[in-house]
Design a protein that fits this description.
With 517 residues, the protein is mostly helical. The chain contains 22 helices and four strands. Strands 1-2-4-3 form a four-stranded mixed sheet, with helices on both faces. A hairpin with a 2-residue loop joins strand 3 and strand 4.
């Protein structure tokens, strides 16, 4: 009987891995089902990763704002070539962990078949275009970490020494991916520390500090060693901490103003998706009510404390991008278990095998309801995002005609032209970050110097010299470099959509090259 149960569990786990890979193949724009991922953030991460493989050092040689571990991961992903297939493989691993961990959480309160049934609805939630967008956000890496933390809390394993070390490793990973993702672990550490102090359990407090620190250092030491070896620790500090904290988002606002903006951003998120959040909240409350007799009240409090800390730190920067909501989903996902518990309570029956088979298929199909990405797949080669005839592909053909030519993505975030043309940046400021010019003028000024000094052969931008302002430069007041008018000429232009907005891209070529040709 026990062997039969183990075998059934393995079948469920295997099915969840298959579902994870199939759903991502259909809904993630990093998969081979798509021509490319045109999201600017993903392209910037991959440019950084490709740069690392070719000896370029983050922050020193290439200016970008996320953490180094995110770029190391994308360096690994770049081993598949100049495409997003490596990112897709990593996403499949992450989603597999997500489903398996959620299945483990479900098994704390449901039968195996019931837990599997609940897990089939998780892709519907995680892959919604509302927050998933194209895939490959930094927040995606936090989901399995948060699910592991939630499992540890609900299974009452968060006070074990081995768990202290594991959580420390996760903190290290997320801290060096995007440090605003570690709110839950700050709450967990403080909660346990206060608890051990009040109970005078100083040996446990010592183990908490020791093993959490060891776990954090397991990730941090190699990261710092890399930058120390390359003599750029100062660059790491200046960009990842100083500029992010002082120039990006609400960097120039007071503490109270930041809190106000964070609350306003959170309220906006709820208003925009009020129906989804209302349904999930009802499910979470149902989960708490139906498991109240099983759960430690202390752990219920800790669960909600971690949720508040996660949300607060994520929103503290004052930036209201839709995918920032992604880190709240592991908490709201318990609403799925709540509804399944309610179904079992009302029917007094376990989920039958025919129902499991049906919903295994629906688990792959259901995200269609909330994910819009398939309309931009290879199945629709002439879609509005460019498809097989995108600006990136058209411009790459022109750039490739000039051997060893250089390129600058000017006045906008990385729009995929480096990747399409198989080029690496030769200018540190290879894109224009979302930092107001007044907060950090060096980014815009350095791009202008590169153009004025004719350091690049080609310039791609959304700026037309015959217009007054770039489509993406309303926040950027620095004058357009004269050389873009006098020493470069538009050789191609292409209009397409990105993120539901219309853009016209212009490719400028150095006139000197044209005369040689």
């Amino acid at each position: 009987m026990k062997q039969e149960k183990i075998s059934e569990n393995r079948v469920f786990v295997l099915l969840l891995i298959v579902i994870a890979c199939l759903t991502l193949f259909i809904y993630s724009r990093n998969s081979p089902f798509y021509f490319t991922n045109n999201w600017v953030d993903s392209n910037a991460y991959l440019t950084m990763g490709r740069g690392i493989l070719h000896g370029l050092v983050p922050y020193k040689d290439l200016f970008e704002q996320k953490g180094p571990v995110l770029y190391f991961i994308h360096a690994l992903a770049s081993l598949t070539g100049d495409n997003f297939y490596g990112v897709f493989i990593i996403e499949c691993l992450l989603m597999s962990f997500n489903l398996i961990l959620f299945f483990k959480i479900g098994k704390l309160f449901l039968s195996e078949s019931g837990a599997f049934f609940a897990t089939l609805f998780l892709p519907l939630l995680l892959l919604s275009s509302t927050w998933f967008e194209t895939g490959d956000s930094a927040e995606e890496f936090a989901i399995p970490c948060l699910l592991f933390l939630i499992y540890s809390v609900l299974a009452d394993k968060h006070s074990m020494s081995v768990n202290f070390y594991s959580q420390g490793v996760l903190v290290g990973l997320l801290f060096w991916i995007k440090y605003t993702l570690i709110g839950a672990w700050i709450a967990l550490f403080l909660f346990l520390a206060v608890q051990f102090i009040f109970k005078r359990e100083f040996s446990k407090l010592f183990r908490l500090c020791l093993f959490e620190l060891l776990g954090f250092l397991t990730v941090t030491v190699p990261v710092l060693a890399y930058f120390l070896f390359n003599h750029v620790l100062q660059s790491l500090y200046n960009v990842y901490f100083k500029i992010n904290m002082g120039s990006y988002g609400s960097g120039n606002l007071s503490f109270t103003a930041r809190i106000g903006r964070a609350l306003s951003t959170g309220a906006d998120f709820i208003k925009q998706n009020c129906l989804i959040y209302l349904v999930l909240l009802i499910g979470v409350l149902l989960f708490v009510v139906l498991t109240w007799h099983k759960l430690s009240k202390r752990n219920v409090f800790l669960f909600f404390l971690c949720f508040l800390a996660t949300s607060a730190l994520q929103l503290y920067a004052g930036v209201g991008l839709p995918y920032y909501q992604y880190v709240a989903l592991p908490y709201f996902a318990l609403g799925i278990i709540g509804f399944v518990l309610g179904l079992v309570y009302l029917t007094s029956k376990n989920v039958s095998k025919p129902v499991l088979v049906l919903f295994s298929v629906l688990g792959i199909v259901m995200p269609f309801a909330l994910n819009q990405n398939p309309q931009f797949s290879r199945y629709f080669p002439n879609n509005s995002d460019g498809g097989k005839n995108s600006a990136q592909t058209e411009f790459a053909h022109i750039i490739d005609k000039v051997p060893h030519s250089t390129l600058l993505n000017y006045g906008m975030l990385d729009s995929g032209f480096y990747l399409a043309s198989h080029r690496l940046p030769t200018v540190r400021y290879f894109e224009l970050q979302k930092i107001p010019y007044a907060n950090y003028p060096e980014n815009g000024d350095a791009q202008n110097r590169a153009v004025n000094d004719e350091k690049v052969d080609f310039v791609v931008t959304t700026f037309d010299v015959n217009q007054e302002k770039s489509q993406e430069q309303s926040r950027w007041t620095v004058p357009v470099p004269k050389a873009l008018i006098t020493k470069y000429k538009i050789v191609a232009q292409h209009s397409q959509t990105r993120d539901s907005s219309h853009y016209t891209y212009y490719l400028y070529e150095k006139k000197e090259l044209m005369s040689k040709g």
